[in-house]
Amino acid sequence: MGTKPHISMTQFAKLHGPLISLRLGTQLLVVGSSPEAAAEILRTHDRLLSARYILKIMFAGGVDLNRVSLMWAPQCNERWKVLRSLCKAELFSPKAIESQTLLREMKMVEMVEFLGSREGQVVKVKQVVSATAFNVLANLVFSKDLTRFEDGECDGSNNGLKGILERLTDLGTRPNLADFFPILGNLDIHGIYKHSLVYLKQAYAEWEDLIKDRRRARGQDASSKRRDFLDAMIENEFADDQINHLIIVSLIT
After folding, report:
1. Rg, C-alpha atoms of the chain
2. Rounded CA gap, 192 and 195, in Å?
3. Residues facing 19 on adjacent strands
4. What is the similarity comment for this entry (predicted)?
5. Rounded distance, CA 166 to CA 158, Å?
6. Which of 60, 169, 203, 241 is the right S-S partner for 196, CB 3.0 to 4.6 Å?
7. First vs last Cα of the chain: how many Å apart?
8. pLDDT in tens, 56-76
9. CA 144, CA 208: separation in Å to the nearest integer?
10. Model's pTM, two decimal places?
11. Where do the structural domains in the chain lie, given as residue ranges?
12. What is the CATH T-level fold of the domain 64-252, as seen in this structure?
């Protein structure tokens, strides 16, 4: 399919119609490329076709996805429903989105001020915007910035937490033979599993102390006011591995 599979899919659809199947290794991929096919898949038969293939990299670290994951859980069990309800209430409800208005405005002001301070200099606007969006998400989770414009995150060096998560995302989007031939899963031919473990440990270390401090603070004052998504997870008695996984998903997506 080349380096631009979406274009290849378009060409296939022109030749073979709006609904085609492809055999990728041992996996069968069905592609719907017309509005009618999309409606059939996503609306008419959504319950039947709502399952997803879980990439091998998602199991890095031996994580139990049914217990900790919202996006990649193999089953929509009771735990998944709890995670969905929590995320909806704390992050995606109209009330939650409205409460984030001031935060978004503040981060936009900071971005504009930073760009103004670099007048006459070369600035990678894409990196600045990306860092701003990252800090918006970080504040929703931790009530604090996790990257600074001055730390090299905006010049492409990517040495901080944002860079770690970008490298994790890159690993997750790389073609992996184990996804097409599951029998090869334990071999880690491309080293994707090994490298993802390294980056996951680095990411967890970035906020490990934040979680400990927040648990300690809430233990000393159980009536303390909830501030962010981390407080909500601790209040709902989430274990550290559950918190880590949800934070990763929140910051990457």
Report:
1. 21
2. 5
3. 32
4. Belongs to the cytochrome P450 family.
5. 8
6. 60
7. 26
8. 888 777 778 888 888 788 777
9. 14
10. 0.78
11. 1-50, 64-252
12. Cytochrome p450 (1.10.630)
